[in-house]
Design brief:
329 residues; alpha+beta; Glucose Permease (Domain IIA); 2 domains; ten-stranded antiparallel sheet; binds zinc ion
């Protein structure tokens, strides 16, 4: 009899053990994964292809795999995936060819990066050697890299997103740029609600897309992530606004500012908590219009999937960052 009562206990203990092992492994791997990726990039960097070019393409591909259903998610350290035509050659009757000789014969780009005699599009060494070789055909400047990206992806927004990631990696010499911050210092007075989809609200990039954070004139507005300033200026609805693109294909939009941080300009690299401007009520009119609504920060988030960019609700992220900033204090 007693055994019958013990069985669920064993099951519980076993599943607890299982999940804690899996969880502990996840905990451990974050830094290890970054280190492993960096080792791969450094192994295949060259004078013409610095590590951050390879890393930026890889990160971009990882980003789009997370939000696209039409392309598989790649496990393993390197996310880059090639089309069969690019790898094996458009005229190759064997679309999944892994023979370096016949791939070269049919004009494919797939290469054997670790000298095992196989050009395997799932092998990190072969992937990076192939990409590094492709990039090196274009030259060593950032303009050359841009041209290589343009020929490969044929999309201006994609080239821009990858260049943004590359410039961030180059600047910070790190892949770990995931930290975030609440846009308003939490010791200031402010209020905001989850109003996604509400018809009332001010100043999305198109319709009302974002969260309005009400605060007094002059309250500092800070970058919520690492990123590059993409836009800084006037817009009819947004007023004085700043757009920042990060390394996760996310575009952060800050509108209705009373003024900017004068030390910043388009192309500058920012960190979480870098002050980009100050809360105001600018917008809804010609340049300089102000005071048509109560002062607030309009904050929007947009995700680029390699084809289109769409807005998503920033409210859940804001709640997380707010809590983290309060705990940090
Ligand atoms: Zn708004």
């Amino acid at each position: 009899m007693r055994h019958r009562y013990l069985l669920p206990l064993y099951v519980c203990a076993l599943s607890w053990l299982f999940f804690s092992v899996v969880y502990a492994k996840e905990e451990l791997t974050r830094e290890e994964v970054m280190d492993e990726r960096m080792r791969y990039y450094l192994q295949f960097e060259s004078i013409t292809t610095p590590w951050y070019f390879l890393a930026a393409i890889d990160q971009f591909e990882r980003n789009i795999q997370q939000v696209r259903n039409d392309i598989p998610k790649r496990d393993g350290p390197i996310a880059i995936q090639f089309s069969e035509e690019f790898w094996a050659g458009a005229q190759n009757p064997e679309s999944l060819d892994t023979s370096p000789e016949s791939i070269t014969y049919f004009g494919g780009n797939g290469l054997d990066g670790d000298a095992d005699g196989i050009a395997d599009p799932d092998n990190p060494n072969d992937i990076l050697y192939t990409m590094a070789t492709y990039l090196s055909l274009y030259g060593e400047t950032e303009e050359d890299f841009k041209l290589a990206l343009w020929d490969y992806y044929m999309r201006e927004e994609t080239v821009n997103q990858i260049m943004t990631i590359a410039m961030m990696y180059k600047h910070f010499e790190s892949l770990d740029l995931d930290e975030h911050a609440f846009p308003i210092p939490t010791n200031y007075n402010y209020s905001y609600r989850g109003t996604w989809g509400a018809s009332r609200g001010w100043g999305g990039r198109r319709i009302h897309e974002g969260t309005d954070l009400f605060a007094g004139y002059g309250t500092p507005v800070r970058s919520t992530s690492y990123g590059v300033i993409e836009i800084m200026g006037w817009n009819e609805f947004g007023g004085w606004r700043v757009g920042i693109r990060d390394s996760h294909n996310t575009y952060h939009y800050f509108a209705h500012l009373s003024s900017f941080n004068k030390d910043l300009k388009v192309g500058d690299i920012v960190e979480p908590r870098t002050i980009v401007g100050y809360v105001g009520s600018s917008g809804y009119g010609k340049e300089g219009t102000s005071g048509k609504f109560p002062p607030h920060l309009h904050y929007g988030m947009y995700k680029y999937n390699g084809r289109t960019e769409w807005s998503f609700d920033p409210y859940p992220s804001l709640r997380v960052w707010e809590r983290q900033d309060k705990q940090r204090k």
